[in-house]
Amino acid sequence: MNIKKQITLTIILLMAVTTLSAQDTAINWLSFEQLEDSLAVKPKKVFIDFYAEWCSYCKKMEKVAYKNPDVIARLNSEYYAVKMDAETTETIIFNGQKFENKEHGNKRNAVHEIPLLLASREGKPFSLPAIVLLDQSFRVTNRYFEYIPPQKMLDLLED
Question: Could you tell me the CATH number of the domain that includes residue 71?
């Protein structure tokens, strides 16, 4: 094998190893638009994290649970992970429907329609953090409204 082929092969192997190791260092967060495309190609369970900039427990989960290598590996391999600011003012088209933050401008900390639909509890006000788990058919299987440390996160992702 000549030197040029050896260098090319080495570069390709290094790129492959770098790509594989990079996949395990961060959660592959998707938007709802990306989720719709991904579900159409390959059905998979869905993990949705609704957060807000002011939510201290949301920030703690970002720094602790979502940095845990085992949590990252489980989410990336078994779920489509979606992260959404519950107070976003963006219009989101999902499954042919338009979703908006209809309370924006009328209410402080106005919540978007999507988290209201997926993470509301009867008789209780909307609260954060809110984690929603869905099956491959996009049916809600569980909801969590609390800070979730890494080991508890792994346990709930196992169910």
Answer: 3.40.30.10
Provide the number of structural domains found in the chain: 1
Q: What is the DSSP string of 10-38?
A: HHHHHHHHHHHHHHTSS--EE-HHHHHHH
User: Which residue is listed with tokens 């949705």?
Assistant: 48
Helices (H), strands (E): how many in the chain? 6, 7
Which pLDDT tens digit goes with each residue over 45-92?
A: 999 999 999 999 999 999 999 999 999 999 999 999 999 999 999 999
Q: Which of 13-17, 23-27, 109-113, 148-152 has the lowest mean pLDDT?
A: 13-17
> Would you call 113 exposed, middle or buried from its count of C-beta atoms within 10 A (0-12, 13-18, 19+)?
middle
Q: Where does 79-149 have alpha helices with state H?
A: 113-118
Q: Which domain holds residue 87?
A: 27-158
What percent helix, strand, coil does the chain show, rounded to 5?
40, 20, 35
Look at residues 104, 99, 64, 72 and name the one whose alpha carbon lies nearest to residue 87.
Answer: 104
The answer as to whether 4 is a domain residue is: no
Q: What's the predicted TM-score (pTM) here?
A: 0.82
